[in-house]
Amino acid sequence: xxxxxxxxxxxxxxxxxxxxxxxxxxxxxxxxxxxxxxxxxxxxxxxxxxxxxxxxxxxxxxxxxxxxxxxxxxxxxxxxxxxxxxxxxxxxxxxxxxxxxxxxxxxxxxxxxxxxxxxxxxxxxxxxxxxxxxxxxxxxxxxxxxxxxxxxxxxxxxxxx
Length: 161
Fold this sequence. Notes:
Radius of gyration: 28 Å
Number of domains: 3
Helix content: 40-55%
Shape: flat
Order of helices and strands: EEHHHHHHH
Oligomer: single chain
Strand order of the largest sheet: 1-2
Distance between the termini: 57 Å
Number of strands: 2
């Protein structure tokens, strides 16, 4: 099968992408794949969770030799391995080198590169506040058996939701 890009060399890289429920296949030679940034000499990595657990195990073995403990809560890497949780916020500082290495191996980077947090708009906050107040007034109206007021509040809540 010839390369879909240059139509000269045999295709050795086969890329499959799915976009909008449509499957697209691209067959590339080694040179065209390298031009597109696809590495052909690197073996596919094993499952990231397996690597993560292996690295945690290595860190535990290292920490047992060094007897590294959190200075505040006395948590060790063995505790982290057993529970999957750190003991306190200071553990992140005390085990920083090991954590950075684990994150780098599992995620490819020790820094978060996802979507940034977008706080809700002020209109949404105001609407949620008004909705909460209406629900509270509805609860009080039902408790005091003011059913006409409760029905009016119920209708206003339905319109807002």
